[in-house]
């Protein structure tokens, strides 16, 4: 991982933070945790970011919302839950990117964040809370449209 942006010292998340919103299905996706070069790794043995965050920030209220049905989805029906979670939080971590097998077997004409992910970031940014974006990708993605909307980017 590479920290590409960190405005206002959004990262690292301090253990004393009262409430943290974790948004994005990739935060709790065991398959994506193993990465593209995992060989015969078993996804069931992996520990998701959500599990790690919850286990580390034991005194913090963690509010998780998927935000999107899957990274390719154009359905915005989960936005309201993600917005509600973000409004309650002191900081927001949003997990964005591609599914594991997209990295390996699919070429794409457009290399932006797929589905409604950019739209979700725009909606969450309207709340005005500090946002750290974590990007899952095994190749370059065009993330320039979200850079002004988030405080930190971990790629």
Q: Strands, helices and their partners?
A:
Layout: E1 3-6, E2 19-23, H1 30-33, H2 49-56, E3 61-65, H3 79-88, E4 91-97, H4 100-105, H5 117-125, E5 131-136, E6 152-154
Parallel strand pairs: 2-3, 2-4, 4-5, 5-6
Antiparallel strand pairs: 1-6
Describe this structure in words.
By secondary structure, the protein is an alpha/beta fold. It has helices at residues 30-33, 49-56, 79-88, 100-105, 117-125; strands at residues 3-6, 19-23, 61-65, 91-97, 131-136, 152-154. A six-stranded mixed sheet has the order 1-6-5-4-2-3, sandwiched between helices. The longest helix has 10 residues, at 79-88. The protein is globular. The termini are close together. The mean pLDDT is 91.
In short:
By secondary structure, the chain is an alpha/beta fold.
- Reading the helices and strands in chain order gives EEHHEHEHHEE
Mean pLDDT: 91
**Helix content estimate:** 10-25%
Strand content: 15-25%
What spatial form do the alpha-carbon principal axes imply? globular
| Total DSSP E strands | 6
Kindly report the spatial arrangement of strands forming the biggest sheet: 1-6-5-4-2-3
**What ranges have pLDDT less than 50 throughout 5 or more consecutive residues?**
none
The Cα radius of gyration reads 15 Å
Q: Which structural class do you get from the secondary structure elements?
A: alpha/beta
The CA-CA distance between the termini, in Å, is 5 Å
Q: Major sheet: size, sense and barrel closure?
A: 6 strands, mixed
Total of helices: 5
């Amino acid at each position: 991982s590479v920290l590409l942006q960190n405005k206002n010292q959004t990262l690292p998340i301090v253990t004393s933070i009262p409430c943290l919103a974790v948004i994005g299905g990739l935060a709790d996706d065991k398959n994506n945790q193993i990465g593209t070069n995992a060989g015969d790794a078993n996804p069931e043995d992996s520990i998701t970011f959500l599990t790690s965050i919850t286990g580390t920030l034991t005194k913090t209220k963690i509010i998780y919302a998927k935000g999107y049905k899957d990274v390719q989805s154009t359905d915005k029906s989960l936005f309201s839950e993600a917005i509600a979670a973000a409004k309650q939080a002191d900081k927001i971590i949003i997990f964005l990117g591609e599914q594991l097998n997209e990295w390996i077997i699919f070429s794409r004409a457009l290399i932006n964040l797929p589905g409604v992910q950019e739209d979700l970031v725009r909606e969450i940014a309207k709340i005005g809370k500090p946002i750290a974006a974590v990007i899952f990708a095994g190749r370059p993605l065009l993330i320039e449209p979200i850079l002004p909307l988030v405080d930190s980017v971990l790629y």
